[in-house]
# Entry
Amino acid sequence: MSQWMIIWRKELLELARSYKLLWLPLVFLLLGVSQPIVTYFLPDILANAGNFPQGTVIEMPKPQSGEVLAQTLQQYGMIGSLIVALGFMGAVSSERNSGAASMILVKPISRSAYLLAKWTAMLVLVWGSLTIGYLGAWYYTSLLIGEVDAIRAIQALLVFALWLSVIGTLMIAGSVWLRSGAAAAFSALGLAILLSLTASFLPSALAWSPGQLPGLASGFLLGSIPDAAGMIIIAGAVLTAAILYAAVWRMRRMELP
Amino acid sequence: MNESTMELSKLLPIIAPLFVIQLILVIVALVALAKASQTRGPKWLWVLVIVFVNIIGPVLFFVVGRRND
# Structure
């Protein structure tokens, strides 16, 4: 445990030195804040930028506040997971290639403690960034569009945080199994896309698939919660644990230069 | 004319935080670039990327351009 604390602090220092502690939250905040603003000004933007003939009247239904937050989560599902991939695609492989991993693991530190410290540091940063960005989106939504049901919004945030944890854990595992950061990012994002695509194409056969997590998060905001909500959350947690176990398993057997 | 200026005064306080966040990203990236002894690719190119590519420019520099030393 104390071993783990020491490496964990080293990981946080590393995140600060590589500026991830700064740019990940800022990019999430930027994405989150711009969604309600763009939604709010969309009629004005269309009227000014579109090549509409003079006097065209654009009528748009005013969006519900829950819808706007759900769209924000959709943004996080696409650009946000790309950002998480960019941030953590080399979590282990870059340290392994540069020799830093060998230097650390020469000391009496267990490899699982090393990996778990990296994983928790990643989780803290991803959850923190997501929460900051989501709160920004929430604030602007209630300012510009309308009040949001707080309990529903928090439930959606927690479910979405689990989905980003799945993606982040996939990234860490990818960086353990593959030497190249780009390959890790491609395969982890590919798996995440596969999960959510199969879940949306076969909603009844894969009702419990963790790929339903982003849909479930939006469901909380839009007021349509599927029956299998509990099972999806459990499946997501189990999948995260399984990927983490696969990463630790490989880490223990890895040859270091 | 009058309408668009009215919209601008309504718009500005709302979108100002967006610009501030972007500005922070750009400035920190530029400072990191100035302090870095080595980068992947020429420095002047990174200045252009950081300043002109929205949001993703600074992120690309932090992820790809910086060398860990």
Notes: The interface with chain B takes residues 18-20, 22-23, 26-27, 29-30, 33-34, 37, 40-41, 44, 48, 83, 86-87, 94, 98, 140, 144 of chain A (CB under 8 Å). The CA atoms of residues 36 and 109 of chain A lie 47 Å apart.
